[in-house]
Every structure is written in structure tokens, then in C-alpha cells.
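tool=predict chain=A
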Amino acid sequence: MAGCALLVSSDLFFIAKVKEAAAACSREVKTVRSHDALQREAAAGGEGGLLLIDLEKPTMPLEVLAGVARELAERNWKVASFFSHVHVETAEKAQQAGLPQPMARSKFVRVLPELLASL
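tool=predict ok
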């Protein structure tokens, strides 16, 4: 059985793009917009899921996202965060908050199928 994939974003266009990529890999991505929803879906997702964080349109503070990411990493979840390449300061803030290796959105789009296939 495939693991759970969760996307934290409020960008409707990009949410659709991620869901389209997931469907092409026969995977499902659930969008979460609140800390409660993220905690609930992550708990239901069990071990070995995938957390995707849009740093351009986060729906909760970076520190909260970093805390959840650390908790999920302990349960063998992969975490990928991404940002617009023109907003390098966004990546720096994310790293300072504790999110692992944010990537430019263009790179994220290239590696997304691989991330989804790993579930």
C-alpha cells in the first residue's frame, strides 16, 4: 500500500499541478491548510509518507511546519519544501526554521514524480 502524501499550500494553481502529477503516478495528494488538519492527516497516514511544503504560500508559520516535519521524519516520512527561485530569502528563512533543504520550484517539479513514486 502506498504511503500518504500531504501538500501544505494555498496556491490553487500549483495544488492542481501537484495533484495532476500525482494522478499520473497513480498516487493521491491531500491538501492541508491548518495545523490541526496536518496533524490529523499525518496521524492517519501512518509511517513512510511524504510531506510537501509550498514556502511561497504557507498556511501556517515556518516554525510550526518545521516542527511537524521533524516529527514526521522520525516516522520515516520524506519532506520536500519548495520556493520561487527569485525568493532566495524564503529558502534561508525556511532553513533557519529547521526545514531540510528547500528547493527551487523548478527543481521540485522535476523531482516530484520520483518523490511520489517512492511512496
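The two ends are 8 Å apart (CA to CA). The mean pLDDT is 91.
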